[in-house]
Amino acid sequence: MNRESRSERVKAVALETGFDLVGIAGPEPPPALAFFADWVARGHAGEMEYLTKQPDRRQALHRIFPWARSIVCVGLQYDTPRPYSIAAPARQGWLSRYAWGDDYHEIMMKMLRAFAARLLREAGPFAYRAYVDTGPLVERAWAAAAGLGAWGKNTCLIHPEHGSWFFLGELITDLDLSCDSPRADLCGSCRACLDACPTGALRAPYVLDATRCISYLTIELKGTIPSELRASLGRHVFGCDVCQDVCPWNRRRRRAGGSAFEPRDGLCSPALHDLAAVDDDAFRRLFRHSAVKRTRRRGLLRNVAVALGNTGGDRAMAAAEHLSRDPEALVREHARWALSMLRSPPNAESESAVESRQARELKGK
Ligand code: B12
Ligand code: SF4
Predict the structure, then answer these.
(1) Whole-prediction pTM value?
(2) Which ligand approaches the C-alpha of residue 44 most closely?
(3) What's residue 363's pLDDT?
(4) Ligand 2: centre distance to CA 240 (Å)
(5) Which residues are known to be catalytic?
(6) I want to staple 145 with a disulfide (CB 3.0 to 4.6 A). Which of 25, 59, 136, 338 is the partner?
(7) 336-349 pLDDT, tens per residue?
(8) By alpha-carbon position, which residue is closest to atom 4 of ligand 2?
């Protein structure tokens, strides 16, 4: 088999395995990697030590996989026909779409192994490493080089048919394959994501300061959420979808992912007071084989406390009071903040201001 037909066969097998997108990149560092070191140096990675510790390891694939000759990049769609966060009912919490169902790391890894096993049967022995967020690879940089999507201003990879609702995985191989070309820009003059980001985390097109991103604050940050950012978190309790929800390429919704990504019981905009009642056993039961287990119960309940403080009403007050007695100090501290917000919201009118406004309104009638 020549190089071209071998590459076509590899891509056909990827699609037959169930991936929605496939493309091939060469082992040389893709152009977008050039921005990585500067991004880390600016402090945008915050406490994500796996990014800051050895940034040079992410620059040179050859140092880690000297035998690598091709990176087969795959994408798996995960959108499901449910509302977007921006249309979710008021006073309910929001878990990111990507975390509603089964953990994508487990699903993708299983599929990548099945993909590799089929290639081994067809092509005979070759060296490979299956990868889905499991080591020092800036996945989007390779996937962009392989043409899986164009880099969006919100920093997500976007595909004209699939929007940005797809996970990435890679098979690093020693197979001699032909490379694909990167896609042309899809954003044009649009800046919907930059304008919609609740925390101003998108500092400029293609530049995300993770330390302000709700996804980082609710998932990666292990300690206290900075108090000046808590109000902007809104009702997000795990991750954030806003900059994807407003993207015109996602609003077309042409594709849907598999049933594994459908929300587990009540996880699409769950009631905050229900989440506040989750104990260790319930957390383990609800989030077994789910990406949400990353925060552990204490992280999730910390986020629930903040979201309660950003809503209102008697049930929110009761739930925040319940969390203010939680065994975890981290949860108790955020619940105390929530109670102070619920008792005197920052933009609520004082009783006397309400009385004088009502008097003015009556006079005007
Ligand atoms: C760390 C991380 C995060 C961090 C930081 C995000 C980030 N933008 O880097 C946090 C926790 C905030 C996060 C959030 C999310 N993540 Co995340 N995350 C990762 C992880 C582990 C590493 C990413 C990384 O290395 N970032 C480093 C910085 C430098 O990359 P960057 O911000 O994209 O910057 C690049 C561009 O800006 C580009 N660039 C710079 N200037 C310019 C100029 C031009 C003109 C161009 C074209 C490009 C360009 O160069 C930089 C790279 O060197 C990857 C998995 C992996 N191992 O790669 C998943 C990954 C990127 N995440 C993913 C997902 C799904 C998410 C969320 C949607 C989850 C959620 N709903 O909460 C959000 C999306 C937020 C967002 N707008 O990006 C998917 C993305 C899939 C896709 N279609 O793009 C990945 C690939 C995981 C996977 N295997 O599927 N994530
Ligand atoms: S995920 Fe949310 S907080 Fe993070 S950049 Fe996008 S809109 Fe902003």
Answers:
(1) 0.93
(2) 1
(3) 45
(4) 6
(5) 133
(6) 25
(7) 999 999 998 766 54
(8) 213
